[in-house]
Design brief:
By secondary structure, this protein is α/β, with parallel strands linked by helices. It folds into 2 domains: about 210 residues, 3-Layer(aba) Sandwich (Malonyl-Coenzyme A Acyl Carrier Protein, domain 2); about 60 residues, Malonyl-CoA ACP transacylase, ACP-binding (Alpha-Beta Plaits). It is about 45% helix and about 15% strand. The chain is built from 13 helices and 9 strands. Helix 11 links the parallel strand 8 and strand 9. The two termini are about 15 Å apart.
């Protein structure tokens, strides 16, 4: 296995796995203990119930994955999908892990508590033509919340409008799948969470990153970290563009440090010629020797 410049990826919500708590308890028990204190109960037991529990649990799992792997893989850049931006900043030593956890907990609380006049949701549109998701958003008063990969876009907005968009998408030959969330994340519906989250960010120390970290809402290296993290709550996740930016910056292999393989699969969708490194294989001394990974 030949490895060039490697980029490290950290996932957001929807990437939890059945062994998430075990992984965290084994690798970063201090984060497990602190997450229970901050949330007021074990977030891993209710990770599927609300973003309030999912965000700290997935954050902890991502940090565990990074700590397990950092001694033998040295990325030249990091990127995180939505929540994963906090994990990416920790990996780049711009943020300490406990502060990152505190922000993940606060972010989850704020996003779970947003109230809107209309019931909000999110809809994945798969296998559509390039222009269909944008057309659906324009015609039905929705927003593109996630541009994950060619043919994989997520819309957010009022549930009634999403139903109409889903019917139109299916009529045009695309698949439309409801996401198991109770809000319209990365849309204007989250606006009331922005300022309180910005206030929480002001209480945390950020250092210049040791490795470049790309924002998934701008597809560029972070500049004003606090402002960009706060604004990202209502901005779309531009993951397809972020992946292209990493490739244009020289990365040709990728590691998904978080729980699950969501981002590993998206590498293959966005960059078919790139290598996706398997952490299990890389932890093997013989594999590291043959691949040249430190």
């Amino acid at each position: 296995m030949s490895i060039g410049a490697t980029a490290g990826l950290f996932p957001g919500q929807g990437s939890h796995t059945s062994d998430l708590r075990e992984r965290v308890e084994r690798t970063v028990p201090e984060l497990l203990e602190r997450s229970i204190e901050l949330v007021g109960e074990d977030p891993f037991a209710r990770v599927a119930d609300s973003t309030r529990f999912a965000q700290p649990a997935i954050y902890c799992g991502s940090i565990a994955g990074w700590i397990e792997s950092r001694s033998f893989v040295r990325p030249v850049a990091f990127a995180g999908h939505s929540l994963g931006e906090l994990s990416a900043l920790v990996a780049a030593e711009a943020l300490d892990p406990i502060s990152g956890l505190e922000l993940a907990v606060r972010r989850g609380e704020l996003m779970a508590s947003v109230s809107t006049r209309e019931e909000q949701g999110m809809l994945a549109v798969l296998g559509a033509t390039e222009h269909l998701p944008g057309l659906l958003a324009e015609q039905h008063g929705l927003v593109v919340a996630n541009d994950n990969a060619p043919g994989q876009v997520v819309l957010a907005g009022p549930v009634d409008a999403l139903r109409d968009a889903a019917a139109q998408a299916r009529g045009d030959g695309a698949r439309a799948i409801w996401l198991d969330v109770a809000a319209g994340f990365h849309s204007p519906a989250m606006q009331e969470a922005v300022e309180p989250y910005r206030e929480a960010l002001e209480q945390v120390e950020f250092r210049p990153p040791e490795v470049t970290v790309l924002s998934s809402s701008t597809a560029r290296p972070f500049d004003d970290v606090r402002a960009e993290l706060a604004a990202a709550i209502v901005k779309p996740v531009r993951w397809r563009e972020t992946m292209l930016a990493l490739a244009h910056g020289g990365a040709d292999s990728y590691v998904d440090f978080g729980p699950g393989e969501v981002l590993a699969r998206l590498v293959r969708r966005n960059l078919p010629d790139a290598s996706v490194l398997d952490l299990g294989e890389l932890r093997s001394p013989s594999s590291r020797e043959s691949s040249g990974v430190v």
